Amino acid sequence: MRLTAMDISNKELNKGFRGYDCNEVDEFLETIAQDYEAIYKENSALKERLQTLEDKIKHYENLEATIQNTLVLAQNAAEQAKRSAEREAELIIHNANENSQRTIDKANSEVVKINEEYAAIKQEFTIFRSKYKNFMKTQMEMFETLEKDYLTNYSISVPKSEVAADLEDSFSVKDEDIDDKNFSSDLDEIKSFFVND
């Protein structure tokens, strides 16, 4: 069972001839170190998860920008095709050619097709944007939940005071995955709990 802030606050240490029992203090500090290490690793995992989600968000933002650019290109293509069809229709009418009506119909059909394709792309983009917004909302809610859970379950409040010299020599934690500088600073803060102000 993981050590909690309440466990630390309520821990009573038996006093020996010269003060607290050193073995009991060392044992309790070791328990604190193990629990703090677990919390530290969980925090690192959450940071990695957050980075992964941020990368996904960036990917979707790039995808949205690509779709917007595609829509602009589709609009330009539709307008260009329409202008081309109109010029072609005017030329056919001018020549009074028997094929004018067929050519006009073909041009109009192409315009309709392009407009339909554009409408379909626009609809797909609207659906994607809605899903993307819902995804972002869900992710933000999850971030808030994770943050609340972390603050509720893993935050340890420790009073600030200087650590006795004998505790400094009797306590050490080794883990290549832990930032030694930050961990040492946090460890000093935990040790200060056992020193009278």
TrEMBL record:
One Pfam family from the record: DivIVA
Localization terms from the record: Cytoplasm
An annotated GO BP: cell division
Protein's recorded name: DivIVA domain
Family statement drawn from the similarity comment of this UniProt entry: Belongs to the DivIVA family.
Organism phylogeny: Bacteria, Bacillati, Bacillota, Clostridia, Eubacteriales
Record-linked NCBIfam families: DivI1A_domain
Organism whose genome encodes this protein: Clostridium cellulovorans (strain ATCC 35296 / DSM 3052 / OCM 3 / 743B)
PANTHER family: CELL DIVISION PROTEIN DIVIVA
Presence of keyword Transcription regulation: no
